[in-house]
Each structure stands twice: as C-alpha cells, then as structure tokens.
Design goal:
heterotrimer, A mainly alpha, B mainly alpha, C mainly alpha, A: mainly alpha, Four Helix Bundle (Hemerythrin (Met), subunit A), 2 domains, 74% helix, 0% strand, globular, B: mainly alpha, 4 helices
C-alpha cells in the first residue's frame, strides 16, 4: 500500500491531492511502526507527519500555487541514478543480519546496556524517554535547536505579516456555526490531551515533541475555524516567540545547572540528592523545554505561512 | 459467563466490520459525491460504536475502557462535524448533486441542503 | 482470533478507501476518503493494541482521532480558499 500511495503521489499533478495522499502515507507508515511495536515513533509520525506537516504543506501551497509544473528535462537520467542507488542499498542490506535476529550489532552493543541499566539509573518506566532525554541528551538538544533554527529561517525569510484590515471587496463567507461550536468544545480537550502527553511521557508513549505538536494543532484548529486574527489575539506572535526561545534556554539551562552542581553537561543525576530523583527532574525539565519550543515553533511557522498567503 | 462475553464481543466486532465494509463498498457503488458521503458517514458512526463496544467487553472495567470510550466520543464528535463541513463546502462551491431529473434542480437542491 | 478477523476487515476497508482516494473524481471525494481512512485507522490501532496485547496503544488512537479531524478541516479550508480565488478569477461577482 505504501508503494502504491507513493506512485500515485508522483503521478498526480494536482498538489492538493498530493498533500492529502501524503497524510494517508504517514498514517500508513505509523500503522507500520505500530505493527513493529515502536509506539513512540508511531506517535510522532501520527502527530507530526499526518498533522502538522499536512498543514504546513497546505500553507506553502497557498503561497506558491497548487499546480505542479511539467518538468523541463527528461526523467530518464535521474531514474537510472535512483534505481542504481536503490540497488546498491538493497545489496548492502543483504550483508546485514536477518531482521529481528538477536545477534545484530545494535543488540550486542548499547541496547542491552540501556535495557539493563535504565530502570536502575533513570528509573522511569518508558525506556524510550530515558534514552531520548537522558542518555542521548545531546542529540535531543541538537534536534530542538534545529527546530528553533528552522523557525529563525522562516521568520527571517518570510516573516509574519501584520494583520491588516481586509479589503472591502472580499466575498462574505457563509456562517459556519456548527464548525465553530464543535471546535470550541474540542479545543480544550486537545490542549488538555497535549499536557497529558507531555507529562505522561515518562510512563507511556509520548513526550515533548508529540505534546508540542498536539498543542500547536489545537491552536491551529482555532485559527482555521475562526480566523487567523483571533488566533493571533489568543496567542500573540510576540509572546510565542519568547516562549520558543525560552524552551531552548530551559534545555540548555538544565545542562548548565547540572554542570554548576558538579556533574557533566546534561548529567541530571546531580540535580537532586538522590540520582534517580535528579534524573526525573532533569527529564521533566528537558521535555518541557522541548515541548515549549516545538509548540511555539509550529504555531509561528503556521502564522508566517498563512498570514503571507492571506496578504497576497 | 466468560463464554457469553466472548460471543457477544465476537458478534459486535463482526457486525462492526460488516458495517464498515458495506460503507466502503458504498463508497464505490454510489454514483455521486453526496450519496457517497451518506454511505461513508452513516456507517462510520455505528461501525465505531460496535467495534469499540466489542473491545470494551474484552477489556472489562479498567482505565482502558475509559480510554476506549474517550476515543469513541472523539470519533462521534469529530466525524459528523467533518462530514457536515465537507458537504457544506462542496455544496457551497457548486458541486451539483446527481439528479434523476435535471429540470428540477432548484427543488431538489433545496431538499439536499435542508437535509445536510 | 476475533481481533485478527476485525483487523483484517478494517484493513480491507482502508484499502477500499485508499482506492477511492486515488480515483476520486472531485477533490471532495478525496477528502471524504481520507476522512474515512483516518477514522478506520483509529479503529485499526485500537484493535491492533488488543491483538498485540498492549492496550496502551490507545493513546495513539486518540491522537489520530484528533489529528484526523484537524487535518480534514485544514484541507477543507484551503480548498475553499482556492475555490474562492478561482471563482473570483472567472468573474468577480460570483459568490
């Protein structure tokens, strides 16, 4: 099904249909991850792939136009290159150990250490979170900063247009009371659910990235059913920008504090008297930082795209 | 007792699957957009109810049941609203329903809009 | 066993919806199919969670239910916007 979807995505010219099929594609991918028992990855794919990236792509379409141009050159040469690369990659996988076999290098090296020591050292039930936020703290910090850098890029390239009054010639839309009432009722639950995902990340699937995306999705739903102006009133871009920077600061600050207390950077064990408690605090703070940054970055990018699209 | 619960949830799950498949077939067999919406959205609601209540019977009184019911409520809440918005948008932007008699556009259209 | 049967049935539904999304003569047909696909994915994950004996998958099902709704609304809004622009291009006064 994945292959079929990908083929159709390539064949279609209307970029709208393509965006929708992308969302189906990521739903399929997420189902695949579910079958492989990678719950956290499926969670992220659901929230990011199907949710936010669809909206951001739509926002891009509003700026650029929604018909794909015919390619000017013949597709034969790229096809050959792609087929060759794919063949080489497949050939490379032949050398890898069989899928799921216990003597893969991954399972010899770090995985047993994580699995054996994580309950003792970090002491939270969801191992993925402990690996993500504690053992691989540097990586996650890098990811957060990448997200933040993307925001800086978008803002410096496009910027958020100040909302001007609509020109009077614009056609009046029909009232959408049902949609608005439904959204109004739903949004609190979405935000609450985002917080649940944020703080439940220690115990079940979830964490900062997913929670941030869900939170942003709630605000975006508000912007869609009412108007961008209302959403900007609710969450003003100025404040959200500060929150985005604050999230990164929180992450880095946790690292600095642990350095000041005598550990290494991002070594949370020194944050409290008991190392396990220290790990808990550290992970909580770091995840909070990630969540804040991701949520506000997604909102700001959405604002930037849509305000740009509406201004034209 | 366990047997009874098992049989019940079998029945519920099968009924739900049947409804879902019939809805999906309706998505193909029906001639125009509006009737397809009808097929998809109506079966969707009951299909979700049947399948989830089948699962609830298996789960018993736990947190899982609560979560299942929350999922069901979300589905019940969002799916009709989405269908409504979809039909409204399609109607507003001039997608005409397929009618047996094309002379009576006005009358039929009013019927459709009052139904939707 | 019963979860397996249900999961297979839902997969059949998903495949059918997928084909409708590929064919879809109008944009709205595609959105309808995507919506149906999404709700069926929610059910699929719930059933799969039971099948695999890990009902904590349900959190994900919830995310899907929400995200799917927001996605459909977003697509609709943009379709509306573009339909408006097109009709404004054709002649200025059609609403």
């Amino acid at each position: 099904m994945l292959g079929l979807t990908a083929m159709t995505i390539i064949r279609l010219r209307s970029l709208f249909a393509v965006v929708m099929l992308f969302s189906i594609y990521s739903l399929l991918t997420a189902s695949l991850f579910m079958v492989l028992d990678a719950v956290d990855v499926a969670f992220t794919e659901a929230a990011v792939g199907a949710g936010i990236s669809t909206m951001l792509m739509l926002g891009t379409l509003m700026i650029t136009g929604y018909r794909e141009k015919r390619p000017a050159h013949s597709p034969i040469l790229p096809l050959i290159v792609v087929v060759l690369t794919g063949a080489v990659l497949v050939w490379g996988t032949l050398d890898m150990p069989h899928f799921g076999s216990p003597d893969q290098p991954v399972h010899q090296h770090v995985a047993p250490r994580y699995i054996d020591d994580s309950p003792k050292e970090v002491g939270i039930p969801n191992m993925v979170t402990s690996v993500l936020a504690s053992y691989r703290g540097y990586d996650t910090m890098g990811e957060t900063i990448v997200v933040f850098a993307a925001l800086i890029g978008v803002l410096s390239l496009i910027g958020i247009k100040k909302y001007t009054n609509k020109e009077p010639g614009r056609t009046e839309k029909p009232p959408e009371s049902i949609l608005q009432v439904a959204a109004k009722l739903l949004i609190p639950f979405i935000l609450l659910f985002a917080l649940y995902v944020q703080f439940h990340g220690d115990f079940g699937p979830g964490g900062g990235f997913q929670a941030g995306v869900i939170f942003a999705a709630g605000i975006i739903l508000y912007a869609l059913t009412f108007s961008l102006k209302d959403a900007m009133h609710l969450a003003p871009p100025k404040v959200v920008k500060v929150i985005a920077a604050f999230g990164v600061l929180l992450y880095g600050g946790t690292g600095i504090v642990s350095m000041l207390k005598g550990g290494t950077f991002l070594n949370y064990s020194v944050l409290a008297h008991d190392p396990i408690h220290g790990q808990h605090y550290g992970i909580l703070l770091v995840e909070l930082g990630v969540g804040l940054t991701v949520a506000s970055v997604m909102m700001l990018i959405f604002y930037a795209f849509v305000s740009r699209g509406e201004a034209d | 007792m366990e047997q009874v619960v098992d049989i019940l949830s079998w029945l519920l799950l099968l009924a739900g699957s049947f409804l879902g498949i019939s809805g999906a077939i309706g998505l193909f067999r029906f001639p125009d957009f509006y009737s397809r919406v009808h097929a998809a959205s109506v079966t969707d609601t009951l299909c979700a109810l049947l399948i989830i209540s089948g699962l609830v019977l298996q789960a018993g009184f736990t947190l899982i049941t609560v979560k299942l019911i929350i999922v069901l409520l979300f589905l019940w809440y969002t799916s009709p609203v989405a269908s409504h918005a979809l039909v409204k948008a399609a109607h507003y932007h001039g997608l005409k329903p397929l009618l047996s008699d094309s002379n009576e556009d006005e009358v039929k259209e009013e019927e459709v809009s009052s139904k939707s | 066993m019963m979860f397996a049967v249900t999961a297979v049935a839902i997969m059949v539904i998903m495949a059918l919806a997928l084909i409708r999304a590929f064919m879809g003569p109008s944009v709205y047909d595609r959105i309808l199919a995507v919506n149906m696909f999404g709700t069926k994915t929610v059910l699929f994950i719930a059933v799969l969670g039971f099948f695999a004996g890990r009902p904590d998958f349900l959190d994900i099902a919830m995310v899907y239910a929400l995200i799917n709704f927001i996605g459909v609304i977003a697509v609709l809004k943009f379709v509306e916007r573009i339909a408006e622009e097109e009709s404004a291009d054709v002649d200025g006064k059609e609403n």
